[in-house]
Every structure is written in C-alpha cells, then in structure tokens.
Amino acid sequence: KGFRLNTFMKITGLEDKDLSKKYLDTAWNAVKYINRKYKETIFLGLGIPYNKAFISLDEIRQIGEEICKIDPKIQVCLIDYRGEFRSKFSQPEPEEMKSVLKILKTNGLKTACCQTKDGYAVNQG
User: Whose CA is closest to 109, among 96, 117, 100?
Assistant: First the structure.
C-alpha cells in the first residue's frame, strides 16, 4: 500500500506513525521472506493501489524498483484505486493506468498488469 510512510497512512487510514511504520516494514519484509523461502512453492502476487490523489509517479517508480530488487518475476497488478474505497476522488482513466504501468515496466518487472474500468491491460516483458 505504498513505499513512503505518509502514503501508507493515507491508504490504510492509520494515524499512529509508529504503528504504521511497523505495518509498512512488516509488509515489505513479508514479501522478501516469502519470495526467499517459498518462491518455488507459493504463488506471490502483489497489488499496488494507484490514484494520483494520494500517490505520486515517483513513489510508483520506487515501489517498482524495490520489487525488482526482491525479484523482477513477482507478478504485479496495478489497481485503480477508486473514491468509493475511502475518499471522494475520481477513478483513474484506463490510459492513465496504462502509462503508470509503463513506469513499472521501465523498472524491469517481468510480469505486470493493471486493472482499469475497461478491464485489464497486460505487460509481459
């Protein structure tokens, strides 16, 4: 749900910084651990919520870079975070989602897709 603490707090609705930091670190450490210990036996797929109202393209790039450091073959789905989830903001348009997906591809992710209101766009590299 983010790479930066403030984004994680916005998405989760948590207000306690220390607890939020613990949860954020735990989530990233869990991805690393599952990939390292169980890569061959457990499917690992990651969802990245996106809406320009709360996460920057630079942070999306950082998330992609971190996932690539762990394993560029981890399956990633960019999720069009919509207003009905937590706040009132508009759903990203499919073309915007596809351009954000290209940022993840630039990082070297091998299998990524994005969820849009028109369906899924796939990027396999």
Answer: 100
